[in-house]
Amino acid sequence: MSNFEELSQSIISGQLDRVKSLTQQAISAGSNPVDIINQGLIPGMSVVGARFKAGKMYVPEVLMSARAMDAGMELVKPLILSGEIPSAGKIVIGTVKGDLHDIGKNLVSMMLESAGYTIINLGVDAGPEKFVQAVKEHQPGVIGMSALLTTTMLAMKDTIELLKEEGLRDKVKVIIGGAPISQDFSDEIGADGFAPDAGSAADLCKKLLA
Ligand code: B1M
């Protein structure tokens, strides 16, 4: 079994300490930090998602996997963010109201930060008022909303509507993402763009802020 496969397996079985030591080993062996995420950590979480959906894993086990994934990401993060990069602009990011999933949102934040943006991370369960307040306070070029539940993705529309009501919609670009989100949904609610993954989110912001 390769190191990345073993790392994925440790995510699946929620072995936080094993994930930490395998991630550290991969770093020490000179693996590219983005490969560690894309070939080790994320594939493990994808299996967790499939098993959760099939009723073969339950919330406590999924939480253990999520915590193990976070621990791996914490070790990789400084490598991706190392070096002084002049800020390419401000981005406010958060997981929408009612939604507590933050792994994907944090990965997107990390990629945006490594692309040179200053990130204001609103955390999870961020309602439209919180996004609007952050736009007033920080005047970002972009706000990014993440949703993982079909029930919470509708909160993205509410945020866009509140931005309009407050006269702020033309002052900020809005990007959205998360497992249930599509380009069609983005068009439907009047967002400026949808990104299917963290790398594309950074490309999209570059395009929108050019
Ligand atoms: Co939840 N959960 N969960 N969960 N969970 C899903 C989303 C689900 C699809 C699982 C399933 O049934 N297959 C399902 C949603 C079904 C639906 O809505 N149709 C589900 C459910 C039902 C629930 C609960 C309701 C379960 C319950 O309590 N009965 C509950 C809801 C809690 C709440 O939010 N109110 C719940 C709880 C949890 C945990 C707390 C246990 C845990 C979250 C821990 C955490 O985040 N700290 C959890 C997890 C881990 C998952 C799965 C297994 C994995 C999500 C994940 O982290 N993936 C997930 C299954 C799945 O997605 N297949 C599932 C890895 C991550 C890197 O990918 O987040 O997709 P992702 O992010 C990607 C892209 O989507 C994109 O880039 C990222 C990186 O490439 N992206 C963006 C994300 N945000 C973006 C923003 C952008 C651009 C791109 O621009 C701003």
Automatic annotation (TrEMBL):
Q: Which residues form the B12-binding N-terminal domain?
A: 1-88
Q: Cite the entry's keywords alphabetically.
A: Cobalt, Metal-binding, Methyltransferase, Transferase
Which Gene Ontology terms cover its molecular function? cobalamin binding; cobalt ion binding; methionine synthase activity
Domain B12-binding, residue spans: 88-210
The cross-references to InterPro entries, in alphabetical order and at most eight, read: Cbl-bd_cap (IPR003759), Cobalamin-bd (IPR006158), Cobalamin-bd_sf (IPR036724), Corrinoid_p (IPR012741), Met_Synthase/Corrinoid (IPR050554), Meth_synthase_dom (IPR036594)
Q: Which portions of this protein are annotated as coiled-coil regions?
A: none
GO CC terms on record? cytosol
BP-aspect Gene Ontology terms: homocysteine metabolic process; methanogenesis; methylation; tetrahydrofolate metabolic process
Keyword Methyltransferase: yes or no? yes
Q: Which Pfam families match?
A: B12-binding, B12-binding_2
Q: Which PANTHER family match?
A: METHIONINE SYNTHASE (PTHR45833)
Q: Which family does it belong to?
A: Belongs to the methylamine corrinoid protein family.
Listed name of the protein = Methyltransferase cognate corrinoid protein
